[in-house]
Recover the amino acids of this structure.
């Protein structure tokens, strides 16, 4: 039996040392932090809160309204106790918004952060409040759809960047410590060469755009977005050494670099056939991967269907996603003894440090030490990369 609806009421949360609003709607009990320590402030917060929308009711301005927050003084240096978090976020968004490539993602993060941290100062960023924010975003206690821990990590990264930007601009007297976030294991599992080829064989009966995407991802190590944005003018099939330029002209290299890579022999006939088909139907002006004459924004749904049909996991922590093919390409290169510097160039990494996680797949990794302990001569490139974390499905 569904719980009866109940209006919002204030409850004190001792572990968080904050007043919360709790109400029941649609048979589900919801909570939201007021961010207030004092009861009077919490009652004022509750008076403005609208449980139906999760926002605040419009207020009729008083004859002599008080400012909702201190007026920003560009000549002043603030202490963490004086500067509101929302002010730092707004300054960060205004100053950096034009330079942030993923603007929609950053703006969404700022919106969610403002909802929780409004009324709080930078000094209020503590382990307790950060844990509260994480819990509410991941469980949906903020009356929104629950999100993944990785999404919360990105949002908190925006918060940290905003605080650091204000400090770097000389507007903050000191930079407070930011609570350390949990370290998560990277999704470094990959397909074996046999598994990769099994996926490619299954792709032969998939939709043409899914098939072409899968081949490109497997043999260029390109990211999902880079492959979907690839155009035919950057697929150089007629050169002595055919090449693919994943980074379009005019797009600056970012932390997620895009490489220029040679076209492997197995991929070459696939691309030649796709180009010939594009010439026939007049779609050379479209991205290489297109569907019914239109660009493709995402192939995740179609790729999931392909992976499931090929017998791979499509749910859980080791599900097969398009990005796994990037790790697969790097792992296969490492297992065949390709130097890390060359793998880094394939992946578009600006430094080998980012590619270090593939070192243990190299056939000679730690084998010199193993030979010494065995009392035998070290023979390079005879070892086999052991212990590949393979995707489920055999």
């Amino acid at each position: 039996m569904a719980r009866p609806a109940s209006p919002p009421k204030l409850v004190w949360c001792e572990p968080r040392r904050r007043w919360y609003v709790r109400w029941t709607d649609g048979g589900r009990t919801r909570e939201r932090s007021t961010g207030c320590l004092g009861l009077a402030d919490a009652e004022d917060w509750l008076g403005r809160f609208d449980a139906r929308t999760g926002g605040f009711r419009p207020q009729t301005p008083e004859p002599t309204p008080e400012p909702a927050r201190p007026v920003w003084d560009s000549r002043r240096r603030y202490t963490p106790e004086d500067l509101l978090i929302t002010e730092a976020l707004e300054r960060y968004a205004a100053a950096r918004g034009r330079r942030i490539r993923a603007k929609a993602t950053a703006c969404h993060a700022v919106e969610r952060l403002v909802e929780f941290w409004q009324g709080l100062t930078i000094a209020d960023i503590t382990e307790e409040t950060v844990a509260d924010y994480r819990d509410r975003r991941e469980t949906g206690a903020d009356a929104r759809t629950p999100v993944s821990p990785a999404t919360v990590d990105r949002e908190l990264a925006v918060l940290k960047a905003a605080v650091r930007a204000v400090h770097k601009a000389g507007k903050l007297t000191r930079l407070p410590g930011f609570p350390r976030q949990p370290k998560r294991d990277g999704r470094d599992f990959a397909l074996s060469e046999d598994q990769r080829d099994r996926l490619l064989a299954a792709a032969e009966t998939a939709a043409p755009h899914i098939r072409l995407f899968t081949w490109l991802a497997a043999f260029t190590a390109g990211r999902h977005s880079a492959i979907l944005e690839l155009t035919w003018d950057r697929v150089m099939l007629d050169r002595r050494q055919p090449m693919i330029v994943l980074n379009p002209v005019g797009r600056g290299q970012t932390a997620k670099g895009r490489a220029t890579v040679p076209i492997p022999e197995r991929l070459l006939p696939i691309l030649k056939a796709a180009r010939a088909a594009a010439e026939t139907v007049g779609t050379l002006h479209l991205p290489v991967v297109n569907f019914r004459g239109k660009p493709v924004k995402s192939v995740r749904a179609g790729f999931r269907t392909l992976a499931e049909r090929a017998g791979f996991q499509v749910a859980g922590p080791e599900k097969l996603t398009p990005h796994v093919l990037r790790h697969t390409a790097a792992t296969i290169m490492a297992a065949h003894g390709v130097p890390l510097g060359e793998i880094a160039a394939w992946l578009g990494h600006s430094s080998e440090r980012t590619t270090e996680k593939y070192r243990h797949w190299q056939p000679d990794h730690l084998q010199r030490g193993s030979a010494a302990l065995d009392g035998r001569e070290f023979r390079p490139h005879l070892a086999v990369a052991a212990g590949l974390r393979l995707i489920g499905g055999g």
